[in-house]
Amino acid sequence: MAAAGVNIKPGKKPTKAQEAQIAKHQKAQQAAMIAQQQQQQQQAMMGGGGRGGMGGRGGMGGRGGGRGAPQQAQAANGGQPMTEDQIKKAYIVKQQRWLLFLRHASKCQAPEGKCQLTQQCHVAKDLWKHVLQCLNPRCEYPRCIASRELLKHHQNCKDARCPVCGPVRSAMIKQRSHAMMQAQQQQMHQQGGPAAKRARMDGGVMMPPPTQVKGTVGTKRPGGEGTSLMECFSPEEVRTHLASLRLADKDVTAAKGQPMSARRRDAESEKAIAGATESACQACGVERLTFEPPPLYCYACVGRIKRGQVFYHIPPHVTGGEVRKDAWCNPCYNQIQGSIEVEGVKYPKNQLAKKKNDDDLEEPWVQCDYCNCWYHQICVLFNGRKNTGGEAPFTCPSCILSQLDKKERAPTTNRPSSQLPASELPHTRLSFFLEERLKKVMTHERNERAKLLGKPIEEIPAADGLVIRVVSSVEKTLEVKKNFKDAFKDQNFPERFPYRSKVLLLFQKTEGVDVCLLGIYVQEYGSDCPAPNNRRVYLSYLDSVKYFRPSGIQVATGEGCALRTYCYHQILIGYLQYIKQRGFTSCFIWACPPFQGEDYILYCHPKEQKTPKSDKLREWYLKMLRQAQKEGIVLSLQNLYDEFHLGNQNHDIASATELPYFDGDYFPGVAEDWIPGIQKEQAELAKKNKGKSAKQTTATARKTGKGKRLGVGTPEAELDVELMKKLGTTIHTMRHDFIMVHLAHQCTQCRKCIADDNRWYDSTPSASGAAFELCQECYDVEQALESHEKKLTTGRDLVCERVDPLPDVKESDEVINSEFFDTRQAFLSLCQGNHFQFDSLRRAKHTTMMVLYHLNNPSEPAFVATCNSCQRELEPGKGWRCETCPDFDICDDCKRMKGHEHPLVRSGGRSDRGPGMTEEDRRVRAEQIQRTMELLVHATRCKDANCGSPNCTKVKHLFKHAANCQLKAAGGCQLCRKMWTLLQVHANGCNDANCPVPRCKDLKAYRQRSQEQQDAKRRARYRVYMQEQQTGA
């Protein structure tokens, strides 16, 4: 430090006289510090349990101790040599004191010589100003380098047991607590008002307000904080939740089918937590828990970059501060020549940074306002999005129990929007139908189980708290891929297929908390959709996690499966019944299992949950479908291979234009990949056969079985034949994975649905179980043939039956927009970006809570902001945003230490403590979005300079500005960014192939390319999987 009266300007080198005066003062201060070593050490270690936010562990500290500490310590020890341990303690205490002094100087506003702590404070202020500006690695300013290193360590240190940072944080908490108590007491004397909110320290350490110190009673009645779901629990639910955390690894829970008394449960719970260390979470008894790192894929080959492997990425300084997640594996990086292009921007290869895929991210912590104990946020179901500015109140479960017992807290009855359960999500006709049906079948199964076991119904475990909701229902359009469209343009194959995409979720209330158990994505192609997709449904994705309760119970209704499987089967059977009633005729299922380490919908499955093999998954579906057949919902089952005669039976292979064309399905993807290769082979073959006669060509075409139907010897006919042959050869061994479910009668000959017509069917069932039935037209054609030519009806006893007409497929449910569930990849990205995992029950509870929070608060931002400098996640209201740079956020520490070239504004955070959105709120919000999108299209087409629409001119000006602006959105132009946001929202819901809105086609094409990459990866891995299965067999 420096002596009193020494004034050194920032950035200036002190004179020799000033240096001597500073050194003299430093020596006196260090001697006084070491003389009080023992007392200071004890005080410093008293509150060493302080915890950082979310990062990893830090080290010992910087090198700010200077020289001569052992010699000075020896002098302060009466001249006796100090032990190594004593020297280390003296060094640590010195670091602590110096760090506290620097932090004091950074915030002290007292004039020179007026600081109540020390007369030399202004000298430390000068040093602080110098440190903030200095970048010289060999700076000679007194204590500059040592102070910079110490501050850098403290900024990044998250180790609760760090001997330097832990006591410093604890001392700062006590210091601020004392200051706030004085201010609060003064305020209460003057105004009698409520206590001020607590502050939050740097690094995520939260300080309790003085009125919430243990042993005191606050002026405000506890309750209604709105930050933890446990505030809504009953005392018994709190105890049950805590016991489930502490006994998670013990086979003594009621979930195993062996009920435990409340007394024994609480005793086991207390025993589990008693052995935990002081620095452990007071709920689960564990210290450091890390998240599963999000999967990383190569931008070039789309292969997964495994844990521990080296990859290359674009660092933020290359992109002007923008954080990009693109990565290249080592082989692909070696193949890059010169530069790499990403979304139209070229990046030189030498600017890519090398990194190892070994990042660890620790679970965040939160401190109770009353008892000062620390908890994992996930353990106590804390909603980090409500922690605006780091000042949100929090009461731990132990204090909640104590306050409830003492009648100091009233139970939360009216939940705010951040704590609404799944049952508060709006119902649709589909969800209501499924939920009511599920209740009936589950009640029936429980009664049957009671009869089988000979027990009263009250003693039979029930699957309570099941909730089904449709969380997304939007109109989409499937564009036919280019190669397929060009190849069959002369056969009037449609260019697009409209459909309704829906997402269904199953929740169950477990220990007072909703847990998402099942997710289903479906595509519904209505009666207005052209063939071959007319009245068809595609079950595109299904995913579940193994937290269904009660577990380990076999059903008693004869299905021979677990209660969990029975429940999921009944939901699917109910859905098939619902779509059949609406007029759909068939459902298609591709039984493609997820691959090891991959997730379809729910991110990060439990390790003990096995991924099913293809045969197991197929049998899972077929078992459900056979039960649906027994109930008369499903009329017949078939696979794609046999349905369309891909085995070339009787030379009547169907045309490729007859196969269903679904979004993300196997056939559209492989057809698009195969067509160029087949066309190339045909061109080469045509050159070789140039001398052949037309008669020979015709004969060759007739041998393929396609010449008569598609035109003799035409390139389109030959392409169709080869495409279907290749499909049949490829899927022959896995044909049973492509399941066709018929909900209506279908003609065996022409494969058309029989409705409002006569149906001729064989009254004698075949040995294979396959149904034989003819429509009236095919029956008449068969009867017109000579007796020796009849093949279909020979040997069959056909009976005629009149079939009722099918109802028009009309969507009765309103559109439900959800940016999180628009695609399964969007929901996976939400979970991966926010570490919403399902790999344990405690995390599944917290993840579901956050999913419900976003569903009930659709205007909330989906992703946590990240500091562009240190990459730390920013809590709501705790960061700064640049209005010039695109997507630039910075934390308080980096803003103070490094600064930014442009003006910064404080990031906002909403603190809505009201109830969730009502039906009217949802309707108004949807109408506002719809009006905005309609205005966007209108302004694009409007040529009237005096248009009567008041906002048309504004949108036109936006268009004009975006076209002429040199800065653009990437350069930070706010108007361009606003325009870009509107265009993205529009493109996300636009189904017009010829939409006039600028960039709409480009945005839809980009989204389609991203989806095609995911689909291609799925097909490729499925093919590899089947090859491995065949090799193993």
TrEMBL record:
InterPro entries: CBP_P300_HAT, Histone_AcTrfase_Rtt109/CBP, RING_CBP-p300, TAZ_dom_sf, Zinc_finger_PHD-type_CS, Znf_FYVE_PHD, Znf_PHD-finger, Znf_RING/FYVE/PHD. Residues 28-45, 69-80 have a biased composition (Low complexity). Residues 85-168, 922-1003 form the TAZ-type domain. It holds the Pfam family HAT_KAT11. It comes from the Eukaryota. Acetyltransferase enzyme. Acetylates histones, giving a specific tag for transcriptional activation. This is histone acetyltransferase. It comes from Micromonas pusilla. The lineage of its organism: Eukaryota, Viridiplantae, Chlorophyta, Mamiellophyceae, Mamiellales.
